[in-house]
Write a structure and sequence with these properties.
homodimer; about 250 residues; alpha+beta; 60s Ribosomal Protein L30, Chain: A; CofE-like fold; 2 domains; 5-stranded mixed beta sheet; 3-stranded antiparallel beta sheet; 6 helices; about 25% strand; globular
C-alpha cells in the first residue's frame, strides 16, 4: 500500500576515512544490497561518518587543556584534553554539574559535550567533532546522489542528543538538504472546524528519530533510507530547528 | 528484506466516544484495510482517541476558574477556564511567561498545558485531558488485541510535546505495554573496542516520533503499526522516560 513508510538500513559501508567520497560509498553499499535509491527518498546519514569523511577528528595527544578545562575536568573526573576540545567547539556553556557538560555548539545546537565523541572512532586517543556546517554536508551528499544515481533524494544528517525532562537519547536532525525541517499547521482546522493550536511539527527530527530505530550503536548501520514519506521539498536548514535563545525558557 | 521497518497507517477509525471499545475499533479498521496485525508488531495509538474512549473530556462550561487561573489567563490572553483545567491536571508549574504554560503533569510529564487540548474534540467548549494512567491504557489495549486477534503486539500511546532548545513538536511516548521504553548500551563496546558512552536510547520515543510522520494533525490517522523493529519485550513504564527532578538540570 502506497501510504506505508519503509525504513531500509544500508549495510556494508566500510570504515570511513578523511577525504573519502562518502556519497559514492553509500551509493555503492546500496547497490551491493540491490537497493535502488529513488526520487523522493530521504537518506538519513549518521553524523559520525560525515565527520570522519570531512576529517573532523582530533587526536587528544595534540591538545593542551586550558586551566578552565582542567578545572571542569577535575570536577567531573574526566579527561581535561577532551573538555578542552568540547569548549573549543562551544559558543556557550548551558549547564554543567559534577557529571555533564551541556553546551551550545557554534552551530547553535544544545547538547552534551558539544557533540564531541570518543566512540566509533579508530584509535584510542582520537575523538570526532560535529561537521562544521552540517547543512552544507547534507547538500554535498544530496548533490553527489543526484550525480551518481540521477535521483532527487533529500538528505538528513543526524546525531544522538539528550533532552531536558526525559531520560534516554534520541536521534535528531543536525543538517538537512532538499527537505523543509518544520511543517507548519497553524491556521489549519481540525475535523471539527477548530483551529489547530501550536502545531509546528519538527518533521526532520521525527525522521531522524525513526532512523535511530535502525542505527543501533553496536551495529554498523550509519545510513537509513526512508521511503514513502511525502515531505515538503525545498531548501531548509537544520538551524530552523534551533530555538532562538530569546524564545527559549530553558536557557 | 527482513531488516526493514514498515510503518502502516490504520485508516477508517470512526470518531471515538466515551465508553467505546477502542481495541475493537482499531482491530476492525485494520481488518477492513485487510491489514493483519501480527506478533511483534508495535501498535502506536494517539493519546487523543484513548482519552476520548476513556471519557477524559471536560466541558469548559462546567469549569469555574480560580483566581490564580484568572491571573495567568489575563497575562496570557487565554481562556481562564482552560487554564483552570490545565492547573488541575498539573503537579507543578515548570515555566510560564506571557504565552506558554509548561507544567509537570500528575504523571510526571513536562509539557505545555499539561496535555490539555482543544483540537480534534467534538464541541466548541470541550477539551481533552491525558489519560489518567497511560501505561494502564496501553496494557488494556494490548490485552484486547491479544483477545481479539490472538497476537502478542506491543502498544505505545503517544502525544505531541514541545522540547527545550528546539523548535517544533515531536511525538513522544506517554504509555507503553509489552516493550521496554529504554535500551541500555552502557558497558558495551563499539567496533573499535572502546566503551560506548552515555548510550541509553529512548526507543519508545523514537517509535512515537516515527509514528508522528504518519499521524498528521489534519489527517485522520490516530493509529500506526510498526513492523520489523526488534525490541526488548517485557513490562516497562513510560515513567522510565521521565527524568527525575533531582537528575534534571532544566527544572
Amino acid at each position: 500500500m502506497s501510504s506505508e513508510i519503509q525504513l531500509t538500513p544500508i549495510r556494508g559501508i566500510p570504515e570511513i576515512r578523511p577525504g573519502d567520497d562518502l556519497g559514492l560509498m553509500i551509493a555503492r553499499a546500496a547497490d551491493k544490497m540491490k537497493f535502488k535509491i529513488t526520487d523522493g527518498d530521504i537518506i538519513v546519514v549518521a553524523q559520525k561518518i560525515v565527520s570522519k569523511a570531512e576529517g573532523r577528528l582530533v587526536n587528544l595527544e595534540s591538545v593542551t587543556p586550558s586551566e578552565f578545562a582542567v578545572e571542569i575536568a577535575n570536577k567531573q573526573q574526566r579527561d581535561p584534553r577532551l573538555i578542552e576540545v568540547v569548549l573549543s567547539e562551544s559558543a556557550n556553556i548551558v549547564r554543567s554539574d559534577d557529571h555533564v557538560l551541556i553546551t551550545e555548539t557554534k552551530h547553535g545546537f544544545v547538547c552534551a559535550n558539544a557533540g564531541v565523541d570518543r566512540s566509533n572512532v579508530v584509535g584510542k586517543e582520537w575523538v570526532s567533532l560535529l561537521p562544521v556546517a552540517p547543512d552544507d554536508s547534507a547538500l554535498l551528499l544530496k548533490t553527489r546522489f543526484a550525480e551518481l544515481l540521477k535521483v532527487n533524494a533529500a538528505v538528513v544528517i543526524t546525531d544522538t542528543f539528550g533532552r531536558a525532562w526525559r531520560e534516554g537519547l534520541t536521534n535528531v536532525a543536525i543538517g538537512v538538504a532538499g527537505i523543509k525541517p518544520l511543517k507548519d499547521f497553524r491556521g489549519k482546522t481540525d475535523d471539527h472546524g477548530k483551529e489547530l493550536s501550536a502545531t509546528v511539527l519538527a518533521v526532520a527530527d521525527e525522521i531522524a528519530a525513526s532512523s535511530g530505530l535502525l542505527m543501533r550503536k553496536t551495529a554498523r548501520i550509519p545510513v537509513v533510507v526512508i521511503r514513502g514519506y511525502y515531505f515538503d521539498h525545498g531548501e531548509g536548514s537544520a538551524r530552523e530547528l534551533v530555538r532562538l535563545k530569546e524564545r527559549d525558557l530553558f536557557r
